[in-house]
Specification:
The complex is a heterodimer. Chain A is an alpha/beta fold. Chain A is built from ten helices and 13 strands. The longest helix of chain A is centred in the first third of the chain and has 21 residues. Chain B has 15 helices and two strands. Chain B is globular, with a radius of gyration of 21 Å. The chains are: A alpha/beta, B mainly alpha. Chains A and B meet through α7 and α8 of A and α1, α6 and α13 of B.
Chain lengths: 382, 343
């Protein structure tokens, strides 16, 4: 018995050692990195504060968190995540609490996800000038927004994405594929700029493809039941009704809302477009996903701090888009048949060259209904 | 129209079965305010069981071969597990209310507070997040009955009856309706049912005739817990893609309202649950309800504010309660701890 135990122990050590040896040779699957790491001195250098919704939302939070822990893991840094209290009803105080906890926990750099963190971030960043903050889906923050020409907080880096571009690709791709009855379910109740950009880009892409095909496209467009980015039975029933009445594919644009939409798709053999990360791994009904490279850009931003070039991004806003391939749709898990990877890549090149320009206006709430599309009819559902 | 019938049933069935759970407890003389808590707990147990069984791979072969009969068996097994654990959970209330003669309202409230906290705590321990989901796949692909399973062609147009009741439905709906009928008959047509009801009206008289009041009340609460636990899992399966997050959207409290609304009588409860389910369904999907099948979405075209539709289920409940509550009659001895010496 003892011998077997010793053997097992020895084997485990060998495997552990080889795992370490290979660590920097190839990219590590983020899911294989422990979410809760324990550091010996109880200090956590790289911290992450979540947006509303849960950490493992298979989307926005999780994508950003994967960037945080991948960077920390690859560089041997300690890392930890903090979730503001009160879940989706979190107030600025709750968020300040989480950020301050991160700072008190020894964080040198704190990644904060979601534009809702603005107020809390301003307060915490002003109070802790030595700590760097990466504001994902954010913008540079003025020290005092009520004063004109107030200097920007140099320790906050605003990172935002051109979601309209990846929304455009998704809309273009599915219409090219032959879908004409589309749906869009957005999170944030029509007030989240990122979701608004995704949605408007989606409409523009659908319009462009419809023009090429001479097709007519209908889009059911709704912010209902998405205010908290949560799954709900009401959302499921609503989308069920869509599929039942002919909608073929729905863009699930909001964290855990994805679960309700795939449930409805499953009941009706419908199709789904994922958001933020490649969600085809989570459901068989996902045809494609509108991506933004959260993991890559988070790693890049943290890297800026550790290689001493923080000043490039600190105090300013960085907009990441098709240049650098920070947005797009996934080609590794391509499942479309009438629209090929080559055609997509040509589209990407055209966009990089500036031949295709996607309007990045944030059309909040029902403004989308007056977007002025010719071939795409938007059925805005209040 | 078929869609409306189907979605109404999805909302109405958990309400109906949980309201019947309330009836069994209250008819035996125990106010079961803990329905919400037991539902939350039952949903958690059911989802956890599905997840564990998936991880153990017991039904992988059946899933692989599309053996949907085996998968339905798996689902019914899960319902039984959720019911059993729901019954165990409700014993906490029974013990406090019967043996300790504690205030039943407070006992029930305590369980309602305990359940979400306990469930969230356990989910955190298990998956380190706020929601417990199936290990693989989704509820529809594992448990839903679709027309292709019953031998229809995928493109076949079904008649109204078949498309409302045989396509895209969960077997849980019919199991619950069947249970509802059987239990209603037991409550009204058997010796056990009569004894149980007598303990809720006049336990002293029942005792004087040799009925064991404590036993009857335990039976009432246990059946109540089993039904509520099962209802919780049914809710999670059919409306939240088999996920548990320490919340059943107030369905337990709604079931209490439905029970009072239905005057503690099964037939009225079924009607009340259907009414509420119908309006709930209209609220969520009024823009895509096509009543007579002519492609016109009447409700969307009226142009009423969407919040009005969302208000409807609650407004209707309030209105009907206001008009019917005068004639409603609660079991006389409910909420009163049984005391032998009291006359």
């Amino acid at each position: 018995m003892k011998k077997i135990l010793a053997l097992i122990l020895a084997l485990t050590m060998v495997f552990a050692l080889s795992a370490v040896a290979f660590a920097d040779a190839e990219p590590v699957d983020p899911d294989s990195i422990e979410d809760n790491m324990t550091s010996d001195d109880n200090v956590y250098e790289v911290a992450f504060v979540t947006d509303v919704g849960q950490l493992k939302d298979k989307s926005f939070n999780e994508g950003t968190w994967n960037g945080v822990k991948s960077y920390a893991n690859a560089n041997g840094l300690s890392y930890k995540y903090y979730q503001p209290a009160n879940g989706s009803e979190a107030t600025d105080d709750d968020r300040i609490g989480a950020m301050q906890a991160a700072v008190d926990g020894g964080a040198k750099i704190v990644v904060c996800a979601g534009f809702l963190q603005e107020g809390a971030l301003r307060a915490t960043a002003s109070a802790n000038p030595d700590v760097k903050f990466v504001f994902i889906d954010g913008y540079p923050l003025a020290e005092d927004p009520s004063v004109e020409d107030s200097p920007m907080l140099a320790n906050v880096a605003g990172i935002s994405y051109q979601e309209e571009q990846s929304g455009y690709f998704a809309g273009y791709a599915v219409v090219k594929e032959g879908y004409t009855e589309l749906g869009f379910c957005g999170g944030g109740g029509g007030t989240n700029p990122a979701c608004c950009r995704y949605g408007y880009g989606f409409v523009q892409g659908a319009e462009a493809a419809a023009a090429e095909l001479g097709a007519e496209v209908n889009i059911n467009y709704s912010w209902n039941y998405g205010a908290n980015f949560q799954a709900s039975s009401e959302l499921q029933t609503m989308v069920n009704g869509w599929y039942e009445n002919g909608t073929e594919i729905v863009f699930a644009c909001g964290g855990s809302m994805f679960d309700s939409i795939t449930a409805a798709a499953g009941a009706n053999d419908g199709a789904v477009i994922g958001v933020d990360v490649d969600q085809s791994f989570q459901s068989d009904y996902v045809v494609t996903s509108a991506l933004k490279n959260l993991q890559g850009s988070t790693e890049w931003a943290i890297g800026k701090f550790y290689d001493g070039t923080w000043d490039d991004i600190g105090g300013t806003g960085t907009v990441l888009g098709i240049n650098g391939d920070y947005v797009g749709i996934p080609t590794a898990t391509w499942s479309l048949e009438n629209f090929s990877v080559e055609e997509y890549e040509a589209l990407v090149e055209a966009m990089k060259a500036g031949d295709i320009v996607v309007d990045n206006s944030v059309l909040e709430g029902g403004a989308i209904a007056d977007a002025g599309t010719d071939l795409v009819t938007i059925n805005y559902i209040e | 129209m078929a869609f409306l019938v189907r979605s109404t049933l999805v909302y109405a069935v958990p309400l109906m079965i949980v309201a019947l759970a309330g009836v069994f407890a209250e008819r035996s003389g125990i106010i079961n305010l803990a329905l919400e808590g037991i539902m939350i707990f039952g949903a958690f147990v059911g989802v956890l069981f599905v997840r564990l069984v998936q991880q153990w791979g017991w039904f992988d072969a059946a899933k692989e071969m599309n053996n949907w009969i085996a998968l339905q068996g798996f689902m019914i097994l899960t319902m039984a597990v959720a019911a059993a654990l729901g019954a165990v959970f409700s014993l906490l209330l029974a013990f406090a209310a019967i043996n300790l003669k504690a205030d039943q309202t407070i006992g029930g409230t305590a369980l309602n507070l305990l359940a979400p906290a306990l469930v969230l705590f356990l989910i955190r321990l298990i998956v380190n997040q706020n929601t417990l989901q199936m290990a693989t796949g989704d509820a529809a692909s594992w448990f839903m009955i679709k027309k292709t399973m019953l031998g229809f062609d995928k493109k076949a147009k079904l008649g109204f009856f078949a498309s409302a009741f045989l396509d895209k439905v969960y077997l849980t709906t019919y199991v619950c309706i069947l249970l509802f009928i059987i239990l209603s008959i037991i409550l009204y047509k058997t010796r056990f049912g009569l004894r149980l009801r007598s303990c809720g009206e006049n336990p002293q008289a029942a005792d004087s005739l040799g009925i064991n009041v404590v036993k009857m009340r335990y039976a009432g609460v246990t059946i109540s817990g089993a039904l509520a636990g099962m209802g919780g899992f049914v809710y999670a399966l059919t409306t939240t893609n088999c996920a548990s997050n320490g919340d059943v959207a107030g369905f337990g409290f709604l079931a209490l309202a439905v029970m009072i609304f239905g005057n503690w009588k099964p037939l009225n409860i079924a009607g009340a649950a259907l009414l509420f389910g119908l309006f709930k369904c209209i609220a969520a999907s009024y823009t895509s309800i096509d009543i007579n099948g002519d492609g016109v979405f009447l409700l969307a075209n009226i142009g009423l504010n969407s919040n009005f539709y969302r208000l409807l289920p609650y407004l209707v409940t309030l209105l009907v309660l206001a008009f019917t509550s005068k004639s409603s009659r609660a079991p006389k001895a409910e909420g009163v701890p049984y005391d032998k010496g009291k006359r």
